[in-house]
Amino acid sequence: MDLLRDNDLIYGRLLPVEEPHLIERYNKALKAFGLKPTKLKSFEIDRSGFSPQIAEELDDRLYLDPNEVNRRFIILTPAQADLPVVHTAFSNTSQLLYEFFTKNSRAIDALTIKDVIYGEIEDSVSKVEDIEDLLSINQVEFRVLSGEDVLGKAAELGTLVDRLKQEPDAWRDSAMLERMVELAKVTGDIRENALVPDQVIFRHNAYWTSHFGGLYVFVDRDMTTVISDPSAPGFRRSRPWQVSYLSIDDADRVFRFLASTGRLELPRASWIEASNYLEHRAEMAILSLIRQSEPERSLANADKVWLQTWIHGHADLINRDGTFPFLNAAKRQIAQFGQLKLDDVDPLHRFLVVRAKPDHPDAWLTNRLISDFVPADFISRYVFNKQGFYKDYESFTAPWRSHVVDLLKTTYLKDKDAFRARLYGLSDKA
Known about the structure:
Layout: H1 2-6, E1 15-17, H2 20-32, E2 43-45, H3 52-58, E3 72-75, H4 93-103, H5 105-111, E4 117-122, H6 131-135, E5 139-146, H7 150-166, H8 174-187, E6 201-203, E7 207-209, E8 215-219, E9 224-228, E10 243-247, H9 251-260, E11 264-265, H10 269-275, H11 277-293, H12 304-313, H13 315-321, H14 323-337, H15 347-350, E12 355-356, H16 363-373, H17 378-384, H18 386-394, H19 398-410, H20 416-424
Parallel strand pairs: 9-10
Antiparallel strand pairs: 1-2, 3-4, 4-5, 5-6, 7-8, 8-9, 11-12
């Protein structure tokens, strides 16, 4: 993973923590979680406060995610809102944290001036043992604490202020007044400083989770759909009138579900031709064949002419695989008729020519699911499904790791927003 780290393809865009007072605050949160304080003089954190360096020091990648449910968080600065989440068991953790930062920005700004905010994203289960446990999570609540108990002291001061206003003789209580002065030294003027978060409860909607080898949950008005390995505990066991279960191995049913619920943008010239989507898929398909047939080959000096020569010299292999010929035929049909009919297309090939409907709330999750059916497209895997990409990357030979990194740097990392907008019609998300 060193090559990925050196090129900001893993643990990129994290926030350095070097100031002694911030490290001290972080340690207060670690101690509150029952963990050993760090001895590091500097480390990096993501939006949730997770640090790969501290995870390595503690020898525990789940130090903020015990049982991979009820995720912990540590907030040192409002600037964390703009960071990625690099380690999580639920794909929507990043969005939930972003909503928490957005809805409570005034309180977070005020609290982090003098304190650390920490806590858990609590839901209705403490351990996930089967699918039903996941489906029981309809909302989450941020249980928020602070290192110096500024939150608790602000709440106490607020209560005393209310008492002073409502009880005619309360001003005679000198002990109470002294306590208010003592609390105000810590909290400041709570009439000006919004120290208590405004919103801590959020909906838990569609998501992917790492539980049971990877599982998707999509929520529609009348039905919840689970897509996973059929061996997952609880698969097809309960609530058939509310929950539809699809095998991740059944490409046809998964595709039909996505299409029928309006989550897919079907292959039409209006977006296919402007995006060069089929050309991208074709290049990924050829690169995958080269990797399979010549895993030790270096592509450091390979250009489009070399690639075209390789294609001509390996026509039999390419025809047996079928992906590249299918994409060429699809391109011709779309150019001629403006669209591609998918009824008679092999289910796996259908995923090659579609993308998530960009304006659908589940667009990112849908593109992630599509990437599971097109693993050869390692760029799409990296954009939408980093866990899957990192797993694939581990199986690559050294020359291929180098080529993958180089291609990601010259395509996606060069201008993420423009790349996502052109290829997937998406923007405004890191």
